[in-house]
Design brief:
4-stranded parallel sheet; alpha/beta; 16% strand
Length: 242
Amino acid sequence: MPREVIIDGKKVGVAHKPYLIAEISGNHLRDLERARMIFSEAKNAGADAVKIQTYTPESLAVEISTERLDENPQWREAWGWGTGDIFNLYKQTYTPPGDFTDALFALGKEFSLTVFSTPFSVEDAKLLAERYQPPAYKIGALEVDFFPMLEVLAATKKPLLLNTAIATLPKIEATLDFLSRAKSGPIILMTGPKVYHEDAAKNFGLGRLQALRERFGGDYVLGLSDHFRGGEYGGNAYGGEE
């Protein structure tokens, strides 16, 4: 029997049709009518679920004064996808907790779309688990071995979708061992393009999906976390000890 995971009553696995998740992230621009339009388009496109992100600027970055940024031009070059200030970038793109996030979960019910989220801190994970109790959680690529946060999510026993795109095989194995010891819910291993940079996002990362299948395919449901913009499909295989 092929392995499967159940998310909000729907079976996910190779024996079932693809489970499609529409990523909203901050594209709602904190405008509920815009969010409603995105939910409607996701539903019309055949999505099964909508995913948001749960964080605050403070949970991802430190605010730095304009004066210090001016004194360190290399920071402006490196941070914030061209904005020069990653803290203020997150202020523009985060999904406000509380009433606004409540409204997004309500939109999910209105459009019969499952809603879940990606947390980025222990506090974010606790907020989701305690206030919203979503049927699954997505773990971002940089948080795949953030064990304090994973411990909170493991305790929910809900499915965890792990983005392993930038992890090495030893890191993936360490995370799976931790979640096994924590008696987490079922796990879906996902991969795809390694980074969001425009040029690097032109490789779909199917080489890494094949590597996951060869190493873990018999034990876990696999999937793709996609921000593909067209280009090559291969991608690099996972590294060993790198």
